Amino acid sequence: MTRFVPALLAILLIPLGALACGGEATPPVAEDAAATDAAPAEPAVSSDPEGADLNDPGAQRVEPFQIFDNLYYIGIQWVSCYLLVTTDGLILIDSLYGDHIDTAIDGIRAVGHDPADLKYVLVSHGHFDHVGGAARFQETYGARVGMTAADWELAEVPPENPDWEIDVPVHDMVIADGDTLELGDTELRFYVTPGHTEGVLSMEFPVRDDGEEHRAFLFGGVGLNFEGVHRTNLYLDSVARIRRLAAEEGNPIDVNLSNHASMGRIFERAEQLASRAEGDPHPFVDPEGYVAWLAELQRNAEEKLVVERELAGE
What we know:
Elements (H helix, E strand, L loop, with lengths): L1 E4 L1 H4 L46 H4 L4 E4 L2 E3 L8 E5 L2 E5 L6 H11 L7 E5 L5 H4 L2 H8 L2 E4 L1 H7 L17 E2 L5 E4 L2 E7 L8 E9 L2 E7 L10 H18 L8 E2 L9 H9 L12 H25 L3
Parallel strand pairs: 5-6, 6-7, 7-8, 12-13
Antiparallel strand pairs: 1-9, 2-3, 3-4, 4-5, 9-10, 10-11, 11-12
């Protein structure tokens, strides 16, 4: 069963807190790989979107791997892409770009699923490296594409660099703060967390480890490569909001899924998972580490705010 519940219909059932809103537009650039997890992370791939290695499928290829019973990584070195498996079809979180779209399609097949079973592509924000493949998944497999209103607009802005041009998908779903999406045995909740872009989409959903359920969260815009006091304050508001969600009594966020692998120790944790012995804890389940990571994001943004205020003469 598929059910998409807009916020206006769900608000009485699913209160999600205050929404930070507004913010000036930002050009379609890629995230800054400087934001890292609280523990030492693997070396970050270059964040320069003009770097030739970022467009080389061979250099960027990562063997797809299973993270949880219902979640796979099918992204590349630089940009994450996740396959969420439900009892009623597949959900793709972010869609890669350029020749890497084939990497995602091959990855879906490599982990034993059929791209034709894709029901949704959920895009964390409108920069080319996350939304670039959405139109192809929409046209080829009939998947519905979901993004926030602000970032639908952002995706349509012609880029300064022609290498960043994408096919913009047809508007399927405009996701608002507080919306939910139910597909089979899985429900996702959506949060608009502006800062990195004006309409960053974050989401939470259940992941399962041998049947044991955990609360996973993807912050859709970690990078600090934007400008302005206002946008930095929006980012800080968004981080503060996620910190409140993470600290909910009896229901902590215990799985961090970043949309750039280097920002969330994805590959380091994957190595630990590959050597996990029976009875060992799951390396991606780390509620204390998630809280520490959010605190680091806040400190980094507070330092940025000082610089932005100086530049603005405040």
